[in-house]
Amino acid sequence: MSKYTEAELKKELETKEYAYGFYTDIDSDTFPPGLNEAVVRAISLKKNEPEWMTEWRLEAFRHWETMVEPEWANVRYKKPEFQNISYYSSPKQKPKYDSLDEVDPELLDTFKRLGISLDEQKLLAGVAVDVVMDSTSVATTFKKTLAEKGIIFCSISEAIKEHPELVQKYLGTVVPKKDNFYAALNSAVFSDGSFCYIPKGVRCPMELSTYFRINQAGTGQFERTLVIADQGSYVSYLEGCTAPSRDENQLHAAVVELIALDDAEIKYSTVQNWFPGDKSGKGGVYNFVTKRGLCENRAKISWTQVETGSAITWKYPSCVLKGDDSIGEFYSIAVTNNFQQADTGTKMIHLGKNTRSTIISKGISAGQSQNSYRGLVQIGPRAENARNFSQCDSLLMGNRCGAHTFPYIEAKNKTAQIEHEATTSKIGEDQIFYCNQRGIETEKAIALIVNGFSKEVLNKLPMEFAVEAQKLLEISLEGSVG
Amino acid sequence: MLQIKNLHASIDGKEILKGINLEIKPGEVHAIMGPNGSGKSTLASVIAGHDAFEQTQGEILFEGEDIQELAPEERAHRGVFLSFQYPVEIPGVSVTNFIKTAINELRKSKGQEDMPANEMLALIKQKAELLEIDRKFLSRSLNEGFSGGEKKRNEIFQMAMLNPKLAILDETDSGLDIDALRVVANGVNRLRSQENAVIVITHYQRLLDYIIPDFVHVLHDGKIVKSGEKELAHQLEEKGYDWVK
After folding, report:
1. What is the pLDDT at residue A7?
2. Assign residue B58 a region: left if phi > 0, alpha if psi is -120 to 50, beta otherwise?
3. Do B73 and A440 lie within an 8 Å CB cutoff?
4. Are A221 and A262 a contacting pair, CB within 8 Å?
5. In this structure, how many other beta carbons lie within 10 angstroms of the beta carbon of residue A282?
6. Residue A435 carries which DSSP code?
7. Which among A429, A433, A449 is the nearest to B90, CB-wise?
């Protein structure tokens, strides 16, 4: 069969929408700019949500209206005009091109260097995909394997309809809808996202990747993710992909909530590669994310992130160690180049006894970028024998970038043991010359040095992801010295 | 192999080398001696192509080719190796990973494929034995926390792996105790052949008891002020550098 043309695909999608009854009499797929209660209601209606969900959104919205944008982060940008943003557009992305020949060659070159297959390249670049290469069959097999174990993995919209008891019980319990300005905004207007539930005692047999929810490609501006690992279960979840995302939306405000019940373990890995803006600092995505996990007794949550994209990053994946003997981990590599600004880190809130946390943060700054680590380690009065180890390393390339570390420690229990180590180093000309003398050219030398610097974190990523992330680091820093 | 003609070089406008002439043929070992600040290490850096130094006059011919315009890695690909006086640390990059990268970059420059893993392992094993390096050492981060002796031994290990045509050993004896000195010198001697040449830069005569030079040159204030055979090194040891000034 020949390729879908854009018109054919559009037609089919329209038909499907109608068949499932999602169609409303609003003509356009995109709402006009502006945010008020009517818009929030319309989003909920458009998504055919139950009444409780609509009320939940409205409550978040009413609170958001009373809030102001936070200004404590070490980033400078022009604040978004919230009334100039459209808060709903159809989640189904239409292919923009008929063949790869029409796609930006620079983008294709990056795909090639990342080792992404031709079929995947088409999907990522938004090219209509041949029916022969049936990605849905992969997704179907995948879903079947999960269903056999009782694992639920679907979009959050689907979960609201199919599993309301789980969503109602857990949504907003880790990141309350009034938590912060962006979390409140997300709670009011979230478009879609992922939902995952692992039943008691089940070890998820594969890495769960948003990548496989192929039909919901196009993550959207206000993504909402909820992962629940029931008692004694285990899941490894991968978010994002290494391919560059050229999103039209400037503002992204996602919320991710993780719940690890007694003896459960969640490993959450992210590769974020949103459009960082061009070399002169124009454009680029603002990424304001709230990510938090809750650990019950003996549970463990491990965040691993590789952040190379976005013009502005504001992100602190955190762990609330509520249960006794629970464990929180944060492993991060944040790269900033050109005019990018990142203020990222974590919060480890120790509430239970014998709770342990580890923070390993690696910041790499190049060009004229600013890279800040901000971390809070809080030991509550009940948290006997809590322990934390933090290590923050910064690597600078050139003389015009900046690296900053803002560690906060609050200990309310005398038995706590907290260690903090920080280093700042610069890729030296002597290091580069040493590599050159051994026949290693400068770009390759930088890649080698950067990968060595990031090794402790790269090692925490699932194998395949680690290889891609390593290449991504090299590409992100290309041309930054010379 | 190497011809240096009237070489002048400066750093930040300050002239360090003031007209060096030197010819080295395959199979030869040349020692360059001289007091601190005479320009020994500068000469090594200029041959290797360090861009902090400006070659203001004269020429360096390597196998008949003027290498002034070549980048350091291109010189390395042609077979120039510098054993550094102060090898740098590269945290997180293992000795093995580093040498693997260097070998494969060298092969790439010659249009060859990467060296197959089993071949690489066999070669590493062989050369590590030659320099009495144990396995644990190979997995450590390059030069990070290495003792002076370990750093120098690692330099010679890399030299053994890369098998250069011209090896320049810059103060390889500094920081070595007598046992380490013997191991390193033994390694260098085992790698000598009729095709390769070695320049030994040293302050003291001690290393030259182990690596016997064919020629000795004394460098003073950016010029070679005396050349001779190996006896010259002994004379210098007895009489001191003031003798040649």
Report:
1. 52
2. left
3. yes
4. no
5. 9
6. H
7. A449
Q: Which residue of A has its CA nearest to B84?
A: A434
Span between the terminal Cα atoms of chain A, in Å: 49
Total residues found in chain A within this entry: 482
Q: Cα–Cα distance between B153 and A95 in angstroms, integer?
A: 59
What is the complex's ipTM, to 2 decimals?
A: 0.96
Which residues, other chains included, contact A463 with Cβ-Cβ below 8 Å and sequence gap of 6+? none
Spatial distance between the Cα atoms of A371 and A344, rounded to a whole number of angstroms: 8
Phi, psi dihedrals of residue B20, rounded to the nearest 5°: -95, 135
Q: How far does the CA of residue A477 sit from the closest CA of chain B (Å)?
A: 18
Which residue in chain A is spatially nearest to B109 when comparing CA positions? Answer: A439
Query: What is chain B's mean pLDDT, rounded?
Result: 92
- Beta strands A255-260 and A234-239 are unpaired
Q: Which domains does chain B have, with CATH numbers?
A: 2-243 (3.40.50.300)
Which among A193, A204, A256 is positioned nearest to A229, based on CA atoms? Answer: A204
B57, β-bridge pairs: B8
Q: How far apart are CA A359 and CA A379, in angstroms?
A: 15
* Nearest CB neighbour to A453, from listed B72, B91, B102: B91
Residues of A with CB under 8 A from a CB of B: 425, 428-431, 433-442, 444, 448-449, 451-456
pTM (2 d.p.): 0.81
Residues A283-301 pLDDT 10s: 778 889 999 999 999 999 9
Q: E-strand spans in A147-240?
A: 152-155, 194-198, 208-209, 224-229, 234-239
Lookup result for tokens 């999960």: A146
Our CA-based measurement puts residue B103 at a distance from the nearest CA of chain A, in whole angstroms, of 8
Chunked into runs of 10 residues, chain A (482 residues) has average pLDDT values of: 44 33 38 84 89 94 91 83 76 56 66 62 51 42 81 89 95 94 93 90 85 41 91 91 59 92 96 78 83 98 91 92 98 90 94 97 90 94 96 90 92 95 88 96 90 89 79 77 54
Indicate the residue of A428, A431, A440 with minimum beta-carbon distance to B102.
A440
Q: How far is it, in rounded angstroms, from Cα A115 to Cα A302?
A: 27
Tell me the pairing of strands B2-11 and B14-24: antiparallel
CA distance A275 to A287: 10
